[in-house]
Every structure is written in C-alpha cells, then in structure tokens.
Write a structure and sequence with these properties.
The structure is a homodimer.
Chain A: H1 7-17, H2 25-31, H3 40-52, E1 56-59, E2 64-67, E3 80-84, E4 90-93, H4 96-108, E5 112-123, H5 125-130
Parallel strand pairs in A: 3-5
Antiparallel strand pairs in A: 1-2, 3-4
Helix pairs in contact in A: 1-3, 2-3
The first copy, chain A, binds a DNA duplex through residues 6-9, 24-26, 38-42, 44-45, 49, 63.
Chain lengths: 131, 131
DNA sequence: CAAGGATGTGTAATGTCATAACATTATTGT
DNA sequence: ACAATAATGTTATGACATTACACATCCTTG
C-alpha cells in the first residue's frame, strides 16, 4: 500500500515516528549522523517526499516536522494542530465545519486554495494542570 | 488613541503600511537603511511591539509581516489570512463559526490556547483569472 | 533634584532554518 | 542495453532570528 520509502526517507520517518514532539530538520540530521547522513539537504529532501505522501506534516509556526498521527493517513483534507508550548506535544484533528466555512470564504472570493494551515499554540490539558 | 510609537516603530509601521504585500524583517531593514537602521534587531524589536499592539501580523507560513488591514484593529480574536502565492497580496478575515469550533475543540480537550494561526495559501481571484 | 527603574536604542556576533548548484549513483521502462 | 527518471552526496551560500552587552532616555517618587 504505502509506497516503498528510500533509505533516507525511512531513516527520517523512523526518527519522527519515535519522537515525542516535533523535530527540526537539523535535529533530525543530528540524530542520523551515525546512520551516515551528513548534510541538511539529505533530510530536507526526505521530508519533502514524506510530506507529499502525507506521512509527515510541517508545523509552520515551529519550523518543525511531525509524523502524521493517523496510521494510514492519505492526505486528509484539512488538518488542525494543537501544539503545547510546555511539553511540545502535538494533537492533530480535523473539523468539517471549519473546512466548510473556509471553503465558503474562498469560494465567495474566487480564491483557489492550495494549502491551509491551522495551528493552535498554547498549553495542553496536562500542562495546564501542573501550572 | 493608539499609543505613540517610537521612532523605529514608526519607521517600520510606515514601511509595512505602504507595502502591497508582506515583507520580511530583512526587507524592511533594507528599506530603512537610509533612515539609519543598521541591524536586524532594530527591526525585530519594533515588529514585536507592533505585533503586541495588534498593528502588525506575522504570517507564519511566510516568515513575513503585514500591517493589520483593520484601521484601528485592537486584537480581533481570531484572524485568518488568505495569501496569494502569485501576487503576494494578503486578505484578512475572521469567522465566528470557525472560532467557535476551534474553541469547542480546545475546551473539550482542556487545551488552553494562546495564539491561533490560520493561513490559506493559494491564488487570489485576480491571479486565477490570468492563469 | 537625585536615585532608581523601566523602556528604547546601537552594535557585533552568533544561532537556526532552508536552498542552489553541481556531480554521481541507483532504478525503471522499453 | 539504453535512455529517462529519481535519489544521493557534498559544498557553499542564502534567509530568518536571537543573545549578549553597552549606553541613552524618560519617568517616577522620595
């Protein structure tokens, strides 16, 4: 089903899947030095492909990347992220009503959307409790 | 009404207000060399304050800044941006239904939001026509 | 007025994120 | 096997943002 990944793609994917929180490209690179990766581009190229395949998401407000939470996620239409600034964990969800409203706006304005980003930064339940 | 701005803040604000599209901090800096600005920090500090005041918004997916579209905008609750990748123009809007839905999700999950980003990248009406 | 705090400014150095350009090495389809 | 396509490796560079430190300005309050 999911197309085969190349060596570098597999390494990057495993690193992200095993992480508790989003990782920057350079952090991924650092964790893969022992596997032979040496340059940022090797990571960025893998991330590009993985993102295209919907296996990885980029968090714009963090300049970092996470593995997709849905096991066999094939590009869900619109994904929102809730990012905890304390523990770093990210929750991924989607909402059809939000999607409809944004679609409504773009249609009404003749805007053709290519990619939509929704990111909520704050503190997750667990971390609010501790505070 | 709007608190007085300092010299640097005024310069940055004027630059952004006069721009057709979002500007990066370094672009702003370049345009203000003749006014005596020399270091990125002078721009970033001004941008921080202006953003706090709600006069300027940061576009996360662009790493760039725009003047707030609403004349006397005092921190509207939730703002969405539609960013044209062809001409660079940005439209700013808000939607209470979207806000309610996202609020609903965060409340249900005990998540305390601090800042929410909604950015739609694509092509605006004008540019879709030309294509 | 003087002392102290808060805020703004100037500068250099550095840190962090991302891509261009080029050469080489698989992989795949016919 | 051959050509086309995609992936890789490497160096250098570009683009975005912050740390650390020194100095100046304004404003308060005793």
């Amino acid at each position: 089903m999911s197309a085969d990944l190349t060596r570098n793609q597999t390494l990057v994917m495993k690193t992200l899947s095993g992480a508790e929180a989003p990782l920057s490209a350079y952090t991924i690179l650092d964790r893969l030095r022992d596997d032979g990766l040496r340059a940022p581009l090797q990571v960025y190229r893998a991330l590009d492909k993985l993102t295209e395949m919907g296996l990885v998401h980029r968090l714009e407000s963090l300049n970092a990347f996470v593995a997709c939470a849905h096991p066999n996620c094939h590009e869900q239409e619109l994904i929102a992220f809730a990012i905890c600034e304390a523990c770093g964990k990210v929750e991924e969800f989607s909402d059809d009503v939000v999607k409809d409203r944004l679609d409504g706006w773009t249609r009404a304005h003749g805007f053709r959307p290519a990619k939509t980003t929704i990111e909520i930064r704050g503190n997750c339940g667990g971390c609010v409790g501790k505070a």
